[in-house]
Specification:
Blueprint (H helix, E strand, L loop, with lengths): L2 H4 L1 H24 L28 H25 L1 H29 L6
Length: 120
Amino acid sequence: MPLGLKYSSLVILFVLCVAIPLALVVIAGAVSRTRPTPEKHTPFESGVHPEGDARRRFSIKFFLVALLFLIFDVETVFIFPWAVLFRQLGLFGFIEMAVFLIILLFALAYVWRKGALEWE
């Protein structure tokens, strides 16, 4: 079997994967009736028109708290499967999770002592 014939179905698939989305975008652009107005281009969030500049600087505390939330929220990704398989893991699984939670408690105590959770 020639090499070109062997991969022809793969080439057809790639062509279709590119052609279909492009065709849909072109058709949507041709069919749609958009009439942009200044009112449509104003930012609008939560039912309230914005006040002030959208590019204002945020306090670093905001980003620090968001990062800490992510770090401590990821622990639930590890705790949930552990809780589901608790009986199968036995004492070894319990000790491993205890070590994990102790490390998280030390991290939380460190963050708390450094004042990263205080909004001043």
